[in-house]
Amino acid sequence: MEAEVPTLCHMLVASKMSLDVQTRQTDAGVAVIVPSGRLDVAGAPALKDAISEAVKSGPPKVVIDMEGVSFVDSTGLGSVISALKQLRSSQGELRLAAPNQQVRVVLELTTLDRVFPYYATVEEALTGF
Amino acid sequence: MGQDGAFEFHATFAELGEGLDVLHLSIERLREATGREPDDRPLMLFETALGEIGSNVLTHGRPPGTERPIEYDLRFERGVLVASLTDSGPPVHEHLGREMPDVDSEAGRGLAMARSLVDELGYERVGDVNTWRLTKTL
Description:
The complex is a heterodimer. By secondary structure, chain A is of the alpha/beta class.
């Protein structure tokens, strides 16, 4: 006799913002963008907005601190590629710092790790930037 | 979780944020139920593929006027994890073979990523309903 399999049913789950984004500027004039949460199809617009704002009002050097990003999907990656294009068009540069294992796997799977050399920490990303 | 180690999760949803929350919640529940570590690689790869297919379903699977919610099932049994998602969006046969775009492309990676992350990515169109099925041995 087969064991009974319990079923978890979730008909209603409150929706929540998947991504919070904060921006700070270093003394050297580099914009450090700090997303927190899931960088997915729901969260990507928040990152794109933050990057556009940073590029518009600040120096064309940006570090995205990925430490607080728990998960990335292809749309989230698209927002980072969009940022790179914006920055390149203004002779700027983009660096990624502290991606977790899931983010690194996605970067490698899509060969985007060749486009975005990532750094273990924000401090490393800022060195010589 | 059953005595044989089986795990099952079922949900219905209609909104993007809500749906994505539920998909990730289901993986978290499975992780807890099976005692897997947060960095368990096979489960992380499956969750990544599930996020891609879930995003497509939630973005395109409920055209204006659709009443039917998206149906989601996750089942883990005898080491094999299977997720299915059912939606009422347009057929997507022409997109199934899409390859990974070049590195400058901002979109179009989702299906190619999902295919490469699971053992099998199935798609079936019956009437006006799409069913996606992701299978991976953990």
